[in-house]
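thread: overnight batch results

M.L. [08:02]
morning all. the overnight job finished for the chain we discussed friday. pasting input first so we're all looking at the same thing
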Amino acid sequence: MKIPEIMNKRMSFSFEVFPPKEDKGVKSLASALDRLYECEPDFISCTCGAGGSNEGRYFEILKMLKDANRCTPLAHFTCIGQTRESVRNKVDRLKEIGITHILALRGDLPEGWDDTRGDFSHANELVSFIKAEYGDDFVVAMAAAPEKHIEAVSFEADIAHLRMKQDAGADFIMTQLCYDIDAYLRWLEMIRAAGITIPVDVGVMPVINKDATLKMTLSTNGCSIPRELAELISRWYNDPDGFRKAGKEYSAKLIQEYINCGIDGLHIYTLNKSNDVRDILRMAGVHAPRKKRPAAVEE
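M.L. [08:03]
and the structure it wrote out:
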């Protein structure tokens, strides 16, 4: 069953992983995936390096996910350095190994770059190209930032671009991390008013490491840190173990609050930390296998 179809029936549940930098890390990730499969995700997404860096392990992990036949694999795909021909070649390769879902991204520009240095400047162009070339062979997701993309000049401009991606053929939205649920709900109201009707998969970044939390919010994505999270960071600033314990509790509560908002999907950015993620899901009460759910793996 395709991911948007699952979202139209019930809340989807999924994870994100990334390819390890070294070959020896692949075995460790394989073990982590086995632990994540026990949570019965509908799909697992795999990130890719800008411009195709780490490409070999990226395809290796996607094939590993497909061969496991435990959930639907979703491939991240960026515009960085991509020509139309390179996109065809890579999407054909994804098709060969049985991948049917893609997250189309512009991607973070490498330091010193002021454009993508390819045939596609924005994700809506990539969405349009994949849909024109492959039709319904692929479900294409698009990214969104509930607190506004850091490079957008305004919410209005950012949401207009989201509408362009939907109109180009995107099938559902995957959001950036957002710890401010009120901000998420305001954004959701704004995009619906703008005619963006496709399902929204909410991305949650677990709070398990102080430096990673600060990096992902402040130095990378421009996301806000609510008062409760700020107090947690201050209280456990020099105590990594205390921070991890308190962060897991905070993350579990955040997940419960999002679920209570009636979200279409819950997507956990695991940072390949499967044990911590499973602890958080147990605390949130969403770890137990579901007795009845549509099959996520397509024949």
